[in-house]
Design goal:
By secondary structure, the protein is mainly α. It has one domain. It contains 14 helices and no strands. The longest helix is centred in the first third of the chain and has 28 residues. It starts with a helix and ends with a helix.
Length: 301
C-alpha cells in the first residue's frame, strides 16, 4: 500500500481540491449548495488527480525522462517499486473510477436539464480524463511540448471552479472567471516549480517545458508573476462593491501572506533539492488562500 500512496503523490491532492472548493464556496455564499454534489465533485477531482499522477509516473519512465540521472523526487516506476504492467492497470482503473464518479456527478447535478448541458459536461469530463493521460503518455505527449501550463490553467482553474459553481447554482456568472483564473495561475505555479526543479534532466531528454524554453532565470520571473496574477485577479473579484467589507478584506489578506512569503524566497540560484520543498508549500498555500477567500465571501452577505 505504501508504494501506491507514494505513486498517488499526496502533496498534490490539496491543489487538486482548490478549484472545486472555491466553486462550491462561491455557490454557498450565494445560497446554492448541495453536500452530495460537493462530495461527488471532490471525489471526481481526486480520482482525476491520482490518474494524472499515475500516468505521469508511467509516461516519464517509458519516455526516458525519469532515469538514473533523476535524484530528486524519484518516481515509483522509475525506482521499480511499481512495475510498468502494474501501473498500466492502475491507470486504466483510475480512468474508469474517474468516469463513473463523473457520471454520478452529472446525474446528481443536472437532473431536469437540457440534453445539451449534459453532453457539454460529459465531454468536459472525457477531455479531463484524456488530458490527464496524454500529458506524458503517447507518441507526442503535450506536456513535453510545453503545453502543460495551458492545460493545468484550464482544467485546474476555469473548468474546476466555474464547472463546480455551475453544478451547484445552475447560474452562468462570468465574474467567476476571475477567482477561477487565480486558482489556475497558482496551479501552473506548482507545475512550473516542478519543471524548474527538473530543468537540467528535461533539457537533456527532450522535454521542452516552459523553463527549458525560456531558461531558469526567466522561469523564476514567470513563477513570481503567477503568484502576483493570482492575487490581483482575486483582489479584483473581491473588490467588487457588492463583496468588499473590512472583515472579508482582512481574512483575504491573511490568505495572501504565505504566497508572498514564498515569493520572497524563490531565487534563480536555488538547486533542485532546494526548489523541491516549495512545491508542497505552494500547493498548501494555494489551498489556504482559497479557503480564506471562500470564508471572506461568506461574510459579504
Amino acid at each position: 500500500m505504501n508504494r501506491w500512496v507514494e505513486a498517488a503523490r499526496p502533496r498534490t491532492l490539496p491543489l487538486a481540491l482548490a478549484s472545486i472548493l472555491l466553486g462550491n464556496l462561491i455557490a454557498l455564499s450565494e445560497g446554492h449548495f448541495s453536500p452530495q454534489i460537493a462530495i461527488l465533485a471532490i471525489s471526481t477531482t481526486l480520482f482525476l488527480q491520482i490518474l494524472s499522477n499515475f500516468a505521469n509516473d508511467l509516461g516519464d519512465t517509458l519516455n526516458g525522462i525519469d532515469n538514473q540521472e533523476r535524484k530528486v523526487a524519484q518516481r515509483t516506476v522509475q525506482t521499480g517499486k511499481v512495475t510498468i504492467p502494474e501501473m498500466k492497470k492502475a491507470v486504466i482503473i483510475l480512468g474508469i473510477l474517474s468516469f463513473i464518479s463523473g457520471i454520478l456527478l452529472i446525474y446528481k447535478s443536472l437532473q431536469n436539464t437540457s440534453f445539451q448541458e449534459i453532453i457539454i459536461f460529459l465531454l468536459l469530463g472525457l477531455l479531463a480524463i484524456l488530458a490527464a493521460i496524454t500529458y506524458t503518455i503517447g507518441k507526442k505527449p503535450y506536456g513535453y511540448a510545453g503545453l502543460g501550463d495551458l492545460s493545468v490553467f484550464l482544467f485546474f482553474g476555469w473548468v474546476g471552479t466555474c464547472g463546480s459553481y455551475y453544478l451547484q447554482s445552475r447560474i452562468i456568472d462570468y465574474s467567476i472567471f476571475l477567482p477561477a483564473s487565480s486558482v489556475g495561475f497558482l496551479s501552473v505555479a506548482v507545475l512550473n516549480l516542478n519543471n524548474l526543479r527538473d530543468i537540467d534532466n528535461d533539457k537533456i531528454n527532450g522535454k521542452f517545458s516552459i523553463p527549458v524554453r525560456i531558461g531558469k532565470e526567466k522561469g523564476f520571473l514567470y513563477q513570481k508573476s503567477l503568484y502576483l496574477l493570482a492575487i490581483i485577479f482575486s483582489t479584483i473579484f473581491l473588490g467588487d462593491t457588492t463583496k468588499l467589507n473590512p472583515y472579508s478584506a482582512g481574512i483575504f489578506l491573511i490568505g495572501i501572506f504565505p504566497l508572498l512569503f514564498i515569493y520572497t524566497k524563490l531565487k534563480s540560484n536555488l538547486s533542485s533539492e532546494e526548489i523541491d520543498p516549495y512545491l508542497k508549500k505552494t500547493a498548501l498555500s494555494t489551498l489556504w488562500f482559497i479557503i480564506l477567500l471562500g470564508i471572506s465571501l461568506q461574510l459579504t452577505k
